[in-house]
Amino acid sequence: MSLPIESIQSDFLTTISEQDVIVTAATGSGKSTQLPIWAASQGKVLVVEPRRIACTSLAEYVAHLCKTELGGKVGYAIRFETVFDTHTDIVFVTPGVALRWYFEDKLAAYSHIVLDEFHERRWDMDLLLALLKQHAQHRLILTSATLNAHSLSRYLNAPILHSEGNMYPVEEDFIAKDQRAMPTKDRLTERVVTACQQAQEDTDGDILVFLPGKGEIIACASALKSFDAVVVQLYSGCSKQNQQLALSKQMSQRIILATNVAETSLTIPNVTCVIDSGLERRTHLRNGKTVLGLDAIGRDSAKQRLGRAGRTQAGICIRLYGQFAPLIERTPPEIQRESLTELVLAAGCAAQGVDSLPFIDSLPDASKQRALTTLHNIGAIDSKQCATELGKLLYPLPVDAELGFLIANMPSGALKQAIIDLIAVISVPARVYQLPTHLEQIEQLNLLLPNHCDIELAIAIVRDQVDGIVHVESEALMEAKQFSEQLREAFSLPSLEKAASYDRNALITAIAKARPEWVFVKRQNRRGGFGNGKIEVSPSNTSRINENTKAMLVLDTFALAGKGSKQAMTMATLAAPLPIKMLASQEIGELIFLEAYIDQGTIFTTTARQYAGVELSVFSSVAKGEMLIDACTYLIKKGELFEGLYYQLSKNIASHQLYFDYLARPNNLPTACEFIRAKLVELGVESQEDIQLIEAEDFSFQEVDSWELDRFIEKHPLNVTIPELRMQVTYFFKAKRVLLEHLEGKRKDAPKKWELPNFSGFKVQYKKASKVVDIK
C-alpha cells in the first residue's frame, strides 16, 4: 500500500540536492519513516526526534523497511543506550544527544539533518536549529503535521513541500454539559470510564485515551480492569513490553491510555476512537525555575489528537470538555515558558555565546538575563557568554548545570558520591519511590533513618539500603542508577556498588553553603510555610519533613495549582531538616543592626542574624566595619556621642527644608541620621580610635548662608512657646495658611492671636487632637 508522502518524493529529492526544505504532512502520512530513507540516498542522515519512545520505535520500523537489522544501516542513540556503528546510514537521536554530538565535532559525520515534529518547539530543537543555521554545513529537513511553516520558510529561506495524506472523517462528540466547559481534572477517572463505555458501544476498533500524566493513567487503568479489553499504559519511561503492546495490533480490542507521546510520530494501529481529556502536563516559569503544571491543551494539540482516529478508517473523537471551550490557539514554545540556563550554557559551549545565535524567535530577555546571571555566578560562563572549563565539564553531564555545579563543589570524594546518588533521583522524570503507608513499615523506616530526611532516603534507595520498606518503581530506579554510574564515571569516582559512606550533616552543610538560596525557614504566618526571602514552599505529602522542623534544605519542588494564580503553592518534595544554629554558624542570612551601647569606653553593637524575615540569632560584639558606622549614628541620635548634636542638626535641616519650600526650590535634603551616617563614612571612620579624631563641628550642615537662614527662621519659626503651651508650626505657603499643632502644655483653650508671632498674610489655625479651630 502506498503512503501519502510518496506524492512528493521526486520534488523532495530534487530540492534537498540544492537547498533546505520544510515538509508539512498530515499525521500518518509516512513522513517520519520515508524522508530519512530518501535522504540517505544522498548521504548519512541524522534524524532528531523529540521523544525517546518515538526515537527507538521509528528506528526499529525503518530498519524493518530497509530489511536490515537494527544497528546496521539504521540505528538510534538515546540517553544511556546506543545501537549503531560508524557504518550506520540513518541514526535516530533525541535532541540532547544531537546537541552533545554537535559540541564534540559539529555533527561532521552527517550530511543531512532531519528535525522531525518541529512544531513541538522544544528549547533543545530551537537551539539545535539555530546552531545548524549558523554553521551552514548540513542540509536541513524540517517536518511537522501542524507547523506554521511560512515563518520557518522565511527563516531558513527554504521551500515548503506539503502532502495532504489520507485522512478519514472523524466525528467529534463533546460530552460536557456546558458547551464552554474547559478541560478539568475533576472526576477525570469517572468521566474516562463513561467515555470508554460509550466508545465500546460505537466502535470495534481500538480506543486511544489522552491523559495528562502517569498518575492519571494508573488511576484510569485500575478503573478499567473489568472492561473486556486489553488496557495498555503508554508514557515516557514505560516498559518495552507496554510499548510493543501499544505499537502493534492485538487480537483483542485495546484501550490505550497515553500521554502526549502518542500525539505525533508514533504509529498506533487500528485506533478508531480517541478520547481526549483536553489536559496535558506543561512546563512553566515560576520564580525563575521551570515547574510542571496541569494545563488545558491548545487547539493545535486537539487537532493532532483527533487525527489519530482517522488514519485507517472513519473514527470518533470523544472530547471530555465543551465544544466552545476557549482553548489557546497554539502551545507556546518551550523557550517562552522554561528556564534558559541549559540553553545558554549549551550555546556557550557550541557557539560564541547565546547572543551570537540566530534563533527563529527572540529569547525572552528576563529569562535570558536570569540564566546568564546564574551561570556567571557559578563560574560556568565568562563575561563573553562563552563556557569556562567548568562550564565545559558541566554541559555534557546528563543533569542540570546547577546540579552539576553542586557535585563539583563538594569538599570530599565521599560527599561527591552522596550528592551524585541524590541528583540521580532528582534527574529521573518519573517518581522513583513512594513513602510507606503501613504503620509497621513507617516505624521500620523511622528506625533506620530517624532524621526525617528525604535526601538521606533518596541516597539509601539508590544504594539498595531500604529494600522491602519503601515501594520503589523498578524502571525509574534503574534509570536513577544509570544516572549515578554515568556521573560517577564523569568525576572519576568508584562505581555505585562501591559507594562510600558519608556524613549526613556534612553533606547538607556543604549543599547549603554552595546554594544558600535553597535554605528555607519556617514562617510565622497563617499558612505555616517556609520562606527563603523570595518564595514560600510547604512540605508535600511525598516528603518526610515533620511538623517540628524549623528550617529545611529544599532540592526539588512542584507547583500545586490553586483557584487563582495567587493561591498556587510550591510544594517541597525532596528536603532535609536543618538546625537553626547551623544556619547562623554558616553565616546564612544577613546581619541586622538592633542597637548600640558604650561599655568602659568601647562601643558595642547588638546584632541579629536574619534570614527570610526570621531571626536566627542575636548577639553582642565590639562594633567594627559597617556596624561601627551604624552604632555611631545610633549613639549620636541618643545623645551618648556628641551630646546635643542630633537635636541641632535636625533643627538645622528642618530650617533648610522650610526655606527651600518657601522658595519652591526642588531639593533632596537628607534626614539627620542619613547625614550623620554619610559624614562618618566621608570622615573615614573605620575603627573605634577614629572616633577620637572627630568633633561635633565636623558635622556642620550649611547649604544657605547662616545670616540669611537665621533671618528667615526668625520670621518663620518652627516651634512656638507661650505660657503653658508648646506648639509645632507647619507652613502651607501656597495656601497662605499656618497650622499650630499642640505638642505639650496644660493649657486647655486655643492661643490668642496677640500671643503669637506676626504671621502676616497667613490664615492661622490651631490643632489639638483631632479638633482644628481658626485663630482670629
Automatic annotation (TrEMBL):
Protein name: Helicase-related protein
GO MF, any single term: helicase activity
Upper taxonomic lineage: Bacteria, Pseudomonadati, Pseudomonadota, Gammaproteobacteria, Alteromonadales
One Pfam assignment: DEAD
Domain Helicase C-terminal: 187-351
Alphabetical keyword list: ATP-binding, Helicase, Hydrolase, Nucleotide-binding
Signal peptide (UniProt feature, chain positions): none
UniProt source species: Pseudoalteromonas obscura
InterPro entries: DEAD/DEAH_box_helicase_dom (IPR011545), Helicase_ATP-bd (IPR014001), Helicase_C-like (IPR001650), P-loop_NTPase (IPR027417)
Domain spans labelled Helicase ATP-binding: 12-165
